[in-house]
Write a structure and sequence with these properties.
- The complex is a heterodimer.
- Chain A is α+β, with helices and mostly antiparallel strands.
- In chain A, about 55% of the residues lie in helices and about 5% in strands.
- In chain A, strand 1, helix 1 and strand 2 form a beta-alpha-beta unit.
- In chain A, about 45% of the residues are buried.
- Chain B is globular, with a radius of gyration of 17 Å.
- Classes of the chains: A alpha+beta, B alpha+beta.
- Chains A and B meet through strand 4, helix 3, helix 4 and helix 5 of A and strand 4, helix 3, helix 4 and helix 5 of B.
Chain lengths: ~220, ~210
């Protein structure tokens, strides 16, 4: 039985999202590099996996998926039970809804605020030799601060985002936050003690510790 | 059992995204308007439902949730799980893929156009044509992918309708209220897919709600 294959390595934040889920469920998988700088993601082979020419994609037997959040849910749903890992809580419509809420919040509030900082301060300097656009960084930091106020209020009331149980809603924050915490702006989290504690708890998991090591982008 | 309450203005395509799903799923719900003009969306009562001060929010008994796509999924899980292909790992994953595509590829290109053309003038601003043009180009590239996909299957996730198709209804109805609806003309399979969706009672209900009152 061929192992699950992920196209795109942990260096790509969206691939890392999928890889930590694979670690959480503990199944065998392999990673196939996609050469971004050589535009391999726009070549015919990768386009047959992901018609939008983006990273990651995942193949599991005859199943070929793209969009990291969809892939992650498939992995957690298919392989979670066997490893006693339930990060989607789909046996309860109410709990699953709360996981969905905070997964959407990551996608539509958190990611748009944090990603520009990661691109400007980590990705562009490493890949393109560019200096950060300070205006973009400052505007994003302000937005992120407002989002983190809401997270602080939420995490003052429950241990994790969807409730008192760890879920995909928490885990989905790993990749971009990991890169953000490598920048000089990491100290922003110091203003939000519950958020900081939640992040440290997330980073204490074997899955995030393992893939953090593969997320290395230097100029 | 009290009906679910969907909070928000029907002017919002995020609110009406939920209406399409709630209608298709046959859910028992009512719409509770939130008045943006009086700042009701930032009131303590509404912030307790949606801490980002946005619409929609949904209340079902003790459960209060927000984010339109989370609400849509909940409505399906409770009333019509086949719209998510629950129970079939492969098909459920493909539905999830195209639900993500709606959010991150289609609506991410379309909503800046809708904002410039439909919303900004209402707020006393002027449409930034450069933003519209850039996003129309992005949207066309997305529609090329949709055209290829819909040449191979009747609906986005397969030959069955799913939440992935329905999540497109509200924003696409808004597109047809702008001068740019002709962007679909170059993509016959996309056009046919859209005509099929428009014929559904659930989507017709959304269209009726979006009409400005006489």
């Amino acid at each position: 039985m061929a192992p699950v294959t992920v196209f795109g390595s942990a260096v790509f934040a969206n691939a890392a999202r999928v890889l930590v889920c694979l670690e959480e469920v503990g199944i065998e998988y392999e990673v196939v590099e996609v050469d971004y700088m050589a535009k391999e993601h726009k070549g015919p082979e990768h386009l047959s996996r992901n018609p939008f020419g983006q990273i990651p994609a995942l193949q599991d037997g005859d199943v070929m998926l793209f969009e990291s959040r969809a892939i992650s849910k498939y992995v957690l749903r298919k392989y979670g039970k066997a490893s006693n890992v339930d990060l989607l809580r789909e046996d309860s419509a109410e709990e699953a809804a709360l996981v969905d809420v905070w997964t959407e919040v990551e996608a539509h509030h958190y990611f748009p605020a944090i990603a520009p900082i990661v691109y400007e301060c980590v990705v562009f300097p490493a890949r393109l030799g560019m200096q950060p656009n300070q205006k973009v960084v400052d505007e994003s930091l302000e937005k992120l601060g407002k989002v983190l106020e809401i997270y602080e209020a939420r995490l003052s009331k429950s241990k994790y985002l969807a409730g008192d149980f760890f879920s995909f809603a928490d885990l989905t924050h790993f990749p971009y936050t990991y890169y953000f915490m490598k920048t000089t702006h990491a100290s922003l989290l110091d203003k939000f003690p519950h958020v900081k504690a939640w992040w440290e708890d997330l980073m204490s998991r074997p899955s995030t510790k393992k893939h953090g090591a593969g997320m290395f982008l230097e100029p | 059992m009290a009906p679910m309450k969907l909070y928000g203005a029907t002017l919002s395509w995020n609110v009406t995204r939920c209406v399409a799903a709630l209608e298709e799923a046959g859910a028992d719900y009512e719409i509770v308007p939130i008045n943006f003009g009086t700042g009701e969306h930032k009131s303590p009562e509404h912030l307790a439902r949606n801490p980002f001060g946005q619409v929609p929010a949904l209340q079902d008994g003790d459960l209060v949730i927000f984010e339109s796509r989370a609400i849509c999924k909940y409505a399906c899980r409770k009333n019509k799980p086949e719209l998510l292909k629950e129970g079939d790992l492969k098909e459920a994953a493909i539905v999830d893929v195209w639900v993500e595509v709606e959010a991150h590829q289609y609506t991410s290109a379309l909503s800046p156009i809708l904002f410039e053309v439909l919303i900004k003038p209402m707020l006393g601003g002027t449409c930034d044509q450069k933003v519209v043009d850039e996003n129309l180009e992005k949207l066309k590239k997305v529609l090329e992918v949709y055209e290829a996909r819909l040449s191979k299957s009747k609906y986005l996730a397969g030959d069955y309708i799913s939440l992935a198709d329905l999540n497109h209804a509200s924003v696409t109805l808004c597109l047809f209220a702008t001068p740019y609806a002709s962007v679909f003309d170059a993509y016959p399979h996309v056009k046919a897919w859209w005509s099929g969706l428009m014929a559904r009672p659930s989507v017709q209900k959304v269209a009726a709600l979006m009409k400005p009152s006489a």
